[in-house]
Amino acid sequence: MKDNGQGPPNGPDARPALEALEAAAKKSFWGYLGFELVTAEAGKAVIALQVRPEHLNMAGIVHGGVLASMLDNAMGLVAILACPGDGTVTTGLNVHYLHPSSEGRLTCEAALIHRSRRTLTLEGRIADNKGELLAWGSGTFRRVTGL
């Protein structure tokens, strides 16, 4: 998305831009894992994942790497929307695993909590379809021009 000086897409005209972003993401690791965009607006986003057998570890619960990737992707989406025209990269990711899950639909809510000239700090929460908090994480992202 190009920087039009107005920040991330919002309002009734935002959906096409977000759908284009999601379509591009489907060709990446995002699509391989099966993430779906639920909502996105300035400073926050929600993504979802329908748990499939390949998301499980040998103990039969969702693999911690899948949960970490979900947090990273949701927070990364918020960072991308906060920095139109620039690239963003993850520079730090902290994950706290709180409760196991093995089936159903997971949702991850991510929010921007601090921004400086070059760095963004975000937090994310993953819950199952019963509302149980499965994981909480924080991440730092750096703006990178020229990506």
Automatic annotation (TrEMBL):
Keywords: Hydrolase. Transmembrane segments: none annotated. InterPro entries: Acyl-CoA_thioesterase_PaaI, HotDog_dom_sf, PAAI_dom, Thioestr_dom. Residues 60-134 form the Thioesterase domain. Coiled coil: none annotated. It comes from the Bacteria. This is PaaI family thioesterase. It comes from Paenibacillus artemisiicola.
